[in-house]
Records
---
Amino acid sequence: MVLPDNVLFEAGRAGEGIRKRLLEGFNFHTLLRLPTGIWYSPGVKANVLFFDRRPASRDIQTKELWVYDYRTNVHKTLKTKRLSHSDFDDFIRYYHERKKTERFRRFSYEELSQRDKLNLDIFWLKDDSLEHIDNLPTPDVLSAEIVDNLEAALEQFRSVSQELAGEVE
């Protein structure tokens, strides 16, 4: 299942309820954090959730969650630096091996359940672009990301405006 980032950390009962249901009612075993700007709407951060449905039980179904961070220090866009199948080769290999790497980490249910409101916005990699100006993406990548983020914000503002005007049901 593909979901936007906010579902992983949104405050309030709805977001927390979704995360609780995923962790307790399903074997939510893998989370793939995708690069910003590659989804249907520019600037949207998306994630792929891998889980197995389990028969109804009072027992917690998720014992551990493996998180693959393919977002930090990865710069992709819909137009200039598109994702390709080969971009997922490492993920696919480690998905099957379940081996800890720089980008792939395991978190127990106990660790996850102790996070404030079951926040699943999990990251551990240091964002190199924030450390040194020399590590910033090239100007064309930066400008594409800025345009994507501005277009996403404009789309969200339009949606809110239409809703306020009563144009959306």
---
Amino acid sequence: MGGLAEDEGAFSEQRSRMVERDLRRRGIRDARVLETMGRVPRHLFVSPSLAGSAYADAPLPTAEGQTISQPYIVALMTEALALSGGEKVLELGTGSGYQTAVLTCLGADVWSIERSRMLWEAARARLSALGFPSVHLILGDGTAGLAAEAPFDRVLATGSLPGVPPWLTDQLRPRGVFVGPIGGLYDQRLVRMEYDPPHMRERVLCACRFVPLVGAAGWPEGSAPCSEVEA
């Protein structure tokens, strides 16, 4: 697993404790996900003032009212994607780029869309500095998908959506998987949907609360973001 800058031993120890305490003990079993999250330096994806809290199992605020998801939720969503390496993944909402880095380290070919220019530029600079030149970062409306690069093996929504995007079956391969929070603005269900044409098989992973994805198939401009938590 290349592309990661070496970081201080103290943070490495905190990551190891996070993996054991907040991931493995809570039921995350995918060895590759556990190993990856034990290496990706989450403290470099938050502001320096929050670096000391980077490995607590809690979401942390980032720019423009957004959050970086709590480690358990990142691990749960990533495990639900069932990546073996080589999958083409569409990420709706780049945010800080932390989830993008995790997916890339697992061998995915990641296409990530971010609506905010500020977040997009910051994530691009951060991922480049950490050695991820092959990540495809797109500035645009993630809720519309990315038809020009379809089909995808996996689609991951990192913010909430009021419903399953109408384009999903057209941009997802047969046997492909969608993972994301679906529901109301303040309460959602984190779901895993497997596309088995012409049907989508759904499994609920947990109740949750994510910041909203704004866009054509998401929430309207001005929708109030809320603190991201596992409900």
---
Amino acid sequence: MSADLKARVLAAAAAEPSPTRAAVNQRNVVISMVAATSIVGALMIFATLASDGQLVRLGGEVAPDRYVERSVWLLLTTAGGALGIVAMALWFALRRGRSMLGRSRGSLLCGIVLIPLALFAWKIGWSLALGDSMVEWPERTGLKCLSLSLLVAFGPLLAFLAMRRSAAVRPALNGAILGSAAGACAWVAGDLWCPVSYVPHVLLGHVLPLFVLAGVGAVLGQTVLSLRSVASTRRTLGEPRTGGQTFRE
């Protein structure tokens, strides 16, 4: 460890208050509940404005006199698999890993790329196997789903940043992986609402938002997770510095 990096880590430890494990767990539970509530609330608002309150849509009119409907089994399979990917994404994004400095640059970059790829492959693979919703829907380019994804992901992204609080090194990449995780949460909401599996639509309306959110997360991570930003914020708030043993989330 370089002298500069060691000094930055020690400065972070000195500047950060020392909450108890119970306090941290309680705080994270509350933040998680707020994030989940924001997802449901954003989906309900969007569905009310865009589809007469339909939170789950199984089909629609593709062309005059042609109606395509996805099966309930397809919906349960794609949404259930997406939930599993979300769980792994959250574990990866919110945990620092074995090192006190967090995950390596390579692993964070892999996560940012693999999360949307895994969601896309799962969605398209099962749609090919179980449904006929792969056909082109000329009236559904994906812009509504893009808007839905960004709206739903806003609350979780802020919640994940609050849970992570700081990153000793690579704050931008840590913010980016949190953005990807928030986008994965929004993917589940989008999969419930949207019956379209046409590849260009999925790329624009479902995959692109994850990369957009990774970019937004990188900017926010550099702004609020870096040690300089954390120390400055706490000096502004007048939080005390503590010494001795500290509990690290």
---
Amino acid sequence: MSDHHQMTPIRFLSRCFFNHWQNIIFLVLPFILALSSPQDSYRKIKQDCISKGEQIEYRVHYGFINAGEAIMRTDKAIHMVNARPCYKVDVYGNTVGFFDMITHVRDNWGTYIDTSAIVSQTFYQSIQEGKYLKKEVIQFDQLSHNAIVHQLNKHDSTLIKKDTIATLPHMQDLVSGYYYMRTFDFTKMNVDEIFTVTGFFDDTTYQIQVRFLGREKIKTKIGELNSFVVSPIMPKNSFFRGKNPIRAWISDDKNRIPLKVKAELIIGALEIDIRSYKR
């Protein structure tokens, strides 16, 4: 069965978030690369919101029905990748209850995030969604602007195919992009201001435009918190409804904790709510 027919809510939202920007990227990529050279140095981002040993747990639900759970875990050690110190972050997602009987999901997305530049050095994923299986490792050369994609055997992880794909400077993967947004100073943004995150997903480079929607106080399992609200700008489609169909809440404090994600679907809404936090 095709990838499309095996699509699950988690994978579908990931694809939508990184979709429909490729045409612009392919037009501007040669000009950007012409102005960049392998001797480019790493940027430096000052931040204290990302820390070793952080763990965040989430509940995924469709209305009152529990659909799944997710954990974002930062390793307690610093890892050296491409001769750079990195945070190692793993995101685990799985279905529960009734949803687990319909589509059995056991996903792991992982990344090594450069502690200074807050870019991805290596991304890996092990996907099990029903009968759909995928294993992949992507190594980023942030100075030469390349992604080396290793497609692995679904069962024994042996190498099947290796491709080198041109990218843009300061590349993010599916996980590191969220952590990069945590470093933003939202206090200096105006409502409806748009910022861009450069990401790599499904062997393609994207520039994702995200709108800052302002501030909001929300009730969560870890307390009532002030938060910043952002929304990726989505193309018109038949799956979502409303002006800003996907919204994310990030705590308005020094930790910039991802608190909640809500996707307004044609029928109902899929929500990811924080359940616990420790660092």
